[in-house]
## 1
Amino acid sequence: MMKELLFATNNAHKLKEVREICGKEINILGLMDIGFKAEIPEDHDTLEGNARQKAWFIHEKTGRDCFADDTGLFIDALEGRPGVYSARYAGEDCSFDDNVRKVLEEMKAFSNRSAHFRCIVCLILDGKEFLFEGEVKGIILKDGQGKGGFGYDPIFLPIGQTLTFSQMPAYLKNGISHRGKAIGKMVAFLKSEQ
Ligand code: IMP
């Protein structure tokens, strides 16, 4: 039987990516698919803390098997910022473009452009918790390149690639990205449990 899992997100970009990564064997529902509209708390200072908080909150509200992810962009020259605060780096209600602008401004002074994305996925299955991790290293460009993806994708050039996450086709991003790796581990785990 096809496994059905609820993804604790309201981010349509993430949902699309995760559906592509999981393929046809797992039916991924987003919160919009079940009409869940309440805000999800996310007030920890680690990715693990936030992923666990979001997943358990949705599990407790819906009783369903579910998972949540939390991601940060960690820039070496900025001592790991924006890190766990990546979503609201330029302030409450800021846009992806506002965040990108703030990072590019702060990076003007630095020649070391190294950074990495890190993603933690927390799965709640039959009331038990499982964590999966994925990371990708790259550099921060001086200007945004490309229109695809979301968040910091236009300024992130993964190591060994010639295209930013925004410029590359989705299958290529998903094959090397932080989220692709973490969700890939979750899918392998789910298959091994069947
Ligand atoms: P979240 O807390 O997991 O939703 O992620 C925090 C922020 O990190 C998002 O609002 C995006 O700005 C950024 N982010 C997360 N995943 C990605 C990605 O795959 N590419 C670019 N930016 C991302």
## 2
Amino acid sequence: MDRILVLDFGGQYAHLIANRLRRLKVLAEIVPGETKAEKLAGAKGLILSGGPASVYEEGSPQPDPAIFELKMPILGLCYGHQLIAKYLKGKVTPGSRKEYGKAELKVNDCTLFEDLSDTEQVWMSHGDLVEEVPEGFEIIGSTEDCKIAAMASDRIFGLQFHPEVTHTPNGMKILDNFIRMTGCRREWSMHSFLKEKIHELSRMEDDIFLLVSGGVDSTVCYALLKKAGCTVKGLHIDNGLLRMDESKEVLKAMPEIDFFDASEDFLEALKDVANPEEKRRIIGDKFVHVAEKAMKDMNADGWLLAQGTIYPDTIESRGTSHSALIKTHHNRVPLMQELIRQGKVIEPISQLYKDEVRELGLKLGLPHSMVWRHPFPGPGLAVRCLCSGHELEGFKHEDNALISRLAAPLKAVIAPVSSVGVQGDARTYRHPAIVYGKADWEALDSISHLPNKLGSINRVMYMVSDGEPQLDLHRAFITKKRLSLLRKVDKFVNSNVKDKDIWQFPVILIPMGGDYGESIILRPVMSREAMTATYAKLPLEDMRRLAKEIQAMGVDCVYYDITTKPPGTIEWE
Ligand code: XMP
């Protein structure tokens, strides 16, 4: 099938380019920026992504210079635009005025900008700029601060701005024009993806072993391998961190897969661990060890291991060579990376996003209820059961006075626990603010922006139980007792809201409180592909009622997370 390849130089939007092209029905694949030209020769066109570095900086990612000799259209975006200037002997300099955000582009007549107006809103995010175009190029667009915001030769184009983000309203039109110039046939659809994958997988001679958690991604992956006629053995591992009755339900839905109860093993390995990344590493490594052992026991030694990895798992785990680590997804721990390097792993849906995986699941004939299950993270309840290695009473954060002023007329305080967030493309690990008092959604919407005003916090939660927040932090790790409480509350909450249109509803247990020493956080979110999310706004009266019943299960306080992603992530760890 015809395709356009996206060379990834680490930009935060690199992955979006491929998604946008697929929406225009073109097969797009992301490859490392340094990929050798001969490996790219079969494509119809290339797009060079943005990136955080400077093109002349030592160690910054560089393309193979031979790519510019390939006889195909090339589009460079931001850093990619500057790479074109550097390699074809134009000039790039650090800009005296850096541009972030909205800009007005004065547009010249040219094929890339066909059907655009004379001025267009575009989205900029750069420090360096192209100061001289290479020989054979002309300027096709300028902004007030950037004379060479767009340049073109007969087949190579450079844009300083980002057509792939929604803040460039006509960006899709520009990408569409580029596609037309490549002559790439628009053959991509979920149907064609399925056909091509089946063709590719059915030619594989290896037997395949797949861990099936019962979640959407691994189940779709399993169904895909089966459809392709692969010899595939599915194994469901109970890691002791699943939701209530989860294993039972998975085995009922897929009776042919094998089952291995490794819960004691996982819980033993996690018994004194509080650090979130440490927990993730232990769980990921355990999965590899347990899978290897199970493969031996099942005489599947030497088989390929398949994973239902999807794109955000890779990007957030610093899976592309120049992106930042937000969190290590369980299928990206170092041990697994090693197996991938050795060519022992296949990941048939690794270029897709959640919304695309669901579409694929429906095409494969999986039931609607399965395909629309809420996503559940590989490390399971471990990332929703917060731990603490120490006791802390009377915690008073130095920004408490400031947060109270910013949150007024609501009361506010900073909590002693911390959670993972994603801010400015990088991981943060910071305290949340708790706001409390009488409020409606309008008041909470404005309060939810508090992390933009105060650097020491990355989340805001609203207290939906009565009284004052109880802030004593208790020494606590992952135990069966805590997991059992979390499971009970999770089941109760999710069955209470199951008719509501919510994308995902994590319930989190934190070792903070008074008599019981435990509190609960409700985290209902809306999302499309998990890269960004907003909090769902459920009726607060219902949440207050729910909170009372949750407290009766042995919980001190109940909070509702009102943080978008970014600055928070969906999960807390
Ligand atoms: P975050 O917390 O990064 O989550 O905003 C985005 C989505 O990914 C899920 N998630 C995971 N899924 N392995 C997975 O398979 C993981 O390690 C993992 N961590 C987070 C999360 O539930 C949400 O849907």
## 3
Amino acid sequence: MEKKATLTLPDGKKIDFPVLSGSIGPDVVDIRALYGQTGAFTYDPGFMSTASCNSTITYIDGDKGVLLYRGYPIEQLAVHCDFLEVCFLLLYGELPTQKEKDEFVGMVTNHTMLHEQINRFFTGFRRDAHPMATMVGVVGALSAFYHDSLDINDPRHREVAAFRLIAKMPTITAMAYKYNTGQPFMYPQNNLSYSANFMRMMFGTPCEEYRINDVLVRALDRIFILHADHEQNASTSTVRLSGSSGANPFACIAAGIACLWGPAHGGANEACLQMLEQIGDASKVGEFIKQVKDKNSHVRLMGFGHRVYKNYDPRAKLMRETCHEVLNELGLANDRLFELAIALEKIALEDDYFVERKLYPNVDFYSGIVQRAIGIPTSMFTCIFALARTVGWIAQWKEMIVDPDQKIGRPRQLYQGKTQRDVTPIGKRG
Ligand code: ACO
């Protein structure tokens, strides 16, 4: 039987709305006809109760701590797949066969280089520019270089744009870093894996051969997998909203990067690491937790809490495991900040303040420590996140373009300003 929800308006009039069910997750009340039938809007700042689209890509159950890409649990993908397999899955809906994977890797590898003039584009930025500022500019500028993949109505153009973005993001990210440090740009080396190539472009120099460390490459690959998609978060919604006007994919991804830059979204792992540095060592944890619980202090335990997860973020568990592996590999098993993070987590998980509010570690709690150990500076953390999330943004953008329900995103408002009035000529205004 068709499910419906009935709304009773202040004048007593009753209207029925269809209730739609997904394959899992909460039902949604389809209120598309609300304005047409009643002249009223809904009010939902921050989209706390609004499904903005339908999607088949990623599913999160925040209460149970579940994250699925195309139905597969993140825990299994992180163990059995590499990042490019996950990219294939997010883009096409199924895990690749070996043959499909080889072809996909070949396509991505074909597109890793940047148009040579983009190198000169970089040099227009100040050396001390934040690398995210450079990324927003350079990714947006790709639309000025790749005219043969800008027609959003042509499936082939969309496909090529997807390959270009996934392939070029590591090159752009590493170049933004190299430009900051004053070292020469490293060209991609296509016989390396996606993550190994990125590490070489970040940390290699033309003076000597870069030695690949498989444990660190695997850790980075895992960071990419864990950040690849997270359904309709702020930056993904930004990409969809930008794309809904027909903007080209490079411009849409640049918009996503800009949104991700904010500290409430992609910037939290940087803030978490700064917090650990400020606390200093495990003996100060008690004092710090007291401050966090004091409402007047406005201090938050960074890396804890999440809008959707009201349970342990499944990505945080995997990141904790990776943290152990990386620190052991580098002989940093007694790393001061890692020990501090473990002590902080233990106390917070037992403390009523955090238990009552369902505050658990999120992915950022450990990812900063891993990145720092690998040698990635804090200013690059959000860039790494952007690199990883690009595939999610592109998959969601492609899904939106072919969705028959898709319309230009145009929210309405509750107007609380002045009602209509007449202009007084300037000479008569008192
Ligand atoms: N430390 C201390 N108290 C917290 C924290 C925290 N990290 N997070 C939430 N709370 C408290 C709030 O003070 C509030 O308490 P109250 O009910 O007594 O007023 C209650 O928990 C609910 O908090 P909200 O801010 O309403 O929860 P919301 O869902 O809006 O916020 C957010 C989620 C922004 C992530 C928040 O938990 C936070 O600021 N965490 C720290 C920053 C962080 O780690 N962000 C990374 C998110 S993951 C990602 O982007 C990849």
## 4
Amino acid sequence: MQLEPNFEDQRLLPILEKVRTGERLTFEDGMALYRSRDILAIGHMANIVRERLHGNTTFFNVNRHINPTDVCVASCRLCAFGKKARDPKAYTMSLEQVWEVAGKGYSEAATEFHIVGGLHPELTLDWFCQMLRGLKQRYPRVHLKAFTMVEISYLAQRQKIGIRETLERLREAGMDSMPGGGAEIFSERVRRIICDHKIDGNEWLNVARIAHQAGLKSNCTMLYGHIETADDRMDHLVKLRSLQDETHGFVTFIPLAFHPDNTPLQHIAKTTGFDDLKNIAVSRLMLDNIPHIKSYWVMMTPRIAQVAQRFGADDIDGTVVEEKIYHDAGATTSQSLRRGDLLRLIQAAGREPVERDTLYRPVERTETAFTVLV
Ligand code: V47
């Protein structure tokens, strides 16, 4: 029996009809969703799609973030993490430190290292290849999800070789897939203000396209809650959807709320729970060809990330262990959650937790070991 929802915003009813029949939503539909305050109606529709795709499952993983350096040649106004090399607070790990840090700080074996960092003017492609090789040697069963499209473009430019060759060399050294960061928002007007030193939106999409064509999977993100408009958000989502029609290489979309503290944009108010849930729901409804929507607990707080599991999200990210990018920007969440904490959050939301590897294969775990079930 299908329950008839009681929509406060009757203008959303034609969208409900499309959701029910699986018809693709248009840019204008997306704008109607962003304009509406009927969060329960929007969440209800996103939940229909989420349950159609993933039933009652919520995915999580046991992962560790590694940020080899915060030295960055760019000075993006959105960022509190990047530092100039001369800054006494800046750090760059040695290869040995990266390999050592990778093994620290969690009680259960991680299945994924999430590796991103600043655009360091001296670390070479060869250094990063050595880093990956050393990680694979020491942790052969751990998936290396490494380098944003922005880092790839910078490494290629410094090495004076193409994107494809840069990716091939990193892949040969052990890179298994790529995270979704650095996309920010594709609008050039906004990028000029929040991240004018970064590659433009087209180049981000172009690197993603080349990576996918080379057989690499990646995630994608959108940074919201700064100076962008609803039009900018919709434009970003529709561009990701178009590329995905072409390549099918995106695995997960992660909406990222801007954290203003310690950035030159710290006068901007933080996003609210309402906005965070709406972005999860709207992205689930618009990105009909991207399999997973992640509510990243570090950014949203565990509480909102949990509720998001009923507003379109099917993933809550992982144990993380050591998070720097959001914590430098004033995040008050803890740096790490234990596997048991994630299980409790998911179960309390009435969802069934499934531990996954990076590519969403289920993981079975005993006290000391894990097996990826293919
Ligand atoms: O690339 C930087 C953003 C990203 C700030 O792929 C900021 O599974 C908010 O991409 N406030 C890093 N955001 C995080 C990221 C990510 C996280 C979890 C999972 C995955 C995945 C990817 O955070 C950066 C940038 O887009 N960022 N500074 C800030 N002040």
